[in-house]
Amino acid sequence: MNLHERRERHERRSRRNLRRASALGLIAAGVMAVAGTATAVPASASGSAPSSAKASTLGAQAAQSGRYFGAAVAAGKLGDSTYSTILDREFNMVTPENEMKWDTTERSRGSFNFGPADQIVNRALSRGQRVRGHTLVWHSQLPGWVSSIGDANTLRSVMNNHITTQMAHYKGKVYAWDVVNEAFADGGSGQHRPSVFQNLLGDGFIEQAFRTARSADPAAKLCYNDYNIENWSDAKTQGVYRMVRDFTSRGVPIDCVGFQAHFGTGGPPASFQTTLANFAALGVDVQITELDIAQAPTTAYANTVKACMNVARCAGITVWGIRDTDSWRAGENPLLFNGSGNKKPAYNATLTALGGTPAARATASPASPASSASPAASLPSSFRWSSSGSLIAPKSDATHNIAGLKDPTVVYHNGKWHVFASVASSSGY
Ligand code: G3I
């Protein structure tokens, strides 16, 4: 039997089973009250070819391969119209640059202030942009009352409460959290750096933080985030790799690794793609979370983007600021827009590496009805949806031992709801 005949036979059988399933009276189970957020898998990860249509912005172009393109955002700059215009035009992921850090959100014990972060998050979500949460546990930008805690039990309870309260506040609103940031030491040790968390709680503080985070918002992706872990052979990279491998092998919840990617003029190390691929092979997403490159050379930006594009589980890229003047490294002009908000050459290199063609678009007349405007250009750059739990479940009876079902269709006819689906048991569909 050839492939075509096999498919026809399968479809005939499926249709028969649909009728049978209806007669079996499949029942609708309760809808779960808490909605989570589901995210599209990069097309490359699911094996389908990325769309060949070209988009005109970073976010829209990244979305064509199921990825995002984001920026770090400062609440205090949202009123600057040059800044917010670029933000809304180009980016479909937003990371609060400082507003979710401990010294802002819990400046004194148990007293939380989410005002500045809320401003960024609510604005982003209302425009269809997603949000990365940065960061829950970090030795820096940590208020003095935390660094001066002297006993493990107090610190553990303070850390867990901080994670739980902050994640609960943003439950369902944050795509991924940097649960722990920069916990590994620079240099050749491959070990954790000293910090109040490390010193009082020991190596286990990272695992503790991730377990607490999973309970607080099971739908959010949980990332470990660090800098100088892009070069595969570096001791720091290897230390983080061993931790992620250990976590995934023992079932400690971790979904992603963030590579900050604060590069010098040379851009990423030659092994960057290998590093991303090796981490991804552990079963986690990889993300470029804080990209900036001294003097923004076009090749360096293109190489960074290509490394991500070549790794199916590289979910997206975030640049650490919008204009050079917004950057924490402003003196090095490391971003994609200059101080006036104009696109730099690195912008075009980035768009091209994402799959776009800036030059071709510049000559197209968007107003002309004859122009070959991409159908994708009119699509939103990202999609969001909420997912309930199971809506229907199989119900066996005396003669049908049903193990599972798929492809449900609900039809209202003659005052009755009918649920059609394919059902399966050990003997087949
Ligand atoms: O909030 C005060 C403000 O009240 C005061 O008026 C102002 C005067 O300078 O300072 C403000 O705080 C500054 C804060 O940024 C907000 O602008 C801090 O002094 C300054 O140190 C802080 O810098 C941030 C830095 O993290 C702190 O470590 C940068 O903006 C931010 O880009 C940078 O981001 C980090 C990531 O979180 C982690 N990875 C490295 C990355 C770059 O350092």
Automatic annotation (TrEMBL):
<dbReference type="GO" id="GO:0046556">
    <property type="term" value="F:alpha-L-arabinofuranosidase activity"/>
</dbReference>
<dbReference type="GO" id="GO:0045493">
    <property type="term" value="P:xylan catabolic process"/>
</dbReference>
<dbReference type="InterPro" id="IPR017853">
    <property type="entry name" value="GH"/>
</dbReference>
<keyword id="KW-0378">Hydrolase</keyword>
<dbReference type="Pfam" id="PF03664">
    <property type="entry name" value="Glyco_hydro_62"/>
</dbReference>
<keyword id="KW-0732">Signal</keyword>
<dbReference type="GO" id="GO:0031176">
    <property type="term" value="F:endo-1,4-beta-xylanase activity"/>
</dbReference>
<dbReference type="Pfam" id="PF00331">
    <property type="entry name" value="Glyco_hydro_10"/>
</dbReference>
<dbReference type="InterPro" id="IPR031158">
    <property type="entry name" value="GH10_AS"/>
</dbReference>
<feature type="active site" description="Nucleophile">
    <location>
        <position position="290"/>
    </location>
</feature>
<keyword id="KW-0326">Glycosidase</keyword>
<dbReference type="GO" id="GO:0046373">
    <property type="term" value="P:L-arabinose metabolic process"/>
</dbReference>
<comment type="similarity">
    <text>Belongs to the glycosyl hydrolase 10 (cellulase F) family.</text>
</comment>
<dbReference type="InterPro" id="IPR044846">
    <property type="entry name" value="GH10"/>
</dbReference>
<dbReference type="InterPro" id="IPR005193">
    <property type="entry name" value="GH62_arabinosidase"/>
</dbReference>
<keyword id="KW-0119">Carbohydrate metabolism</keyword>
<dbReference type="InterPro" id="IPR001000">
    <property type="entry name" value="GH10_dom"/>
</dbReference>
<feature type="signal peptide">
    <location>
        <begin position="1"/>
        <end position="40"/>
    </location>
</feature>
<keyword id="KW-0858">Xylan degradation</keyword>
<feature type="domain" description="GH10">
    <location>
        <begin position="52"/>
        <end position="353"/>
    </location>
</feature>
<dbReference type="GO" id="GO:0005576">
    <property type="term" value="C:extracellular region"/>
</dbReference>
<keyword id="KW-0624">Polysaccharide degradation</keyword>
<keyword id="KW-0964">Secreted</keyword>
<protein>
    <recommendedName>
        <fullName>Beta-xylanase</fullName>
        <ecNumber>3.2.1.8</ecNumber>
    </recommendedName>
</protein>
<dbReference type="InterPro" id="IPR023296">
    <property type="entry name" value="Glyco_hydro_beta-prop_sf"/>
</dbReference>
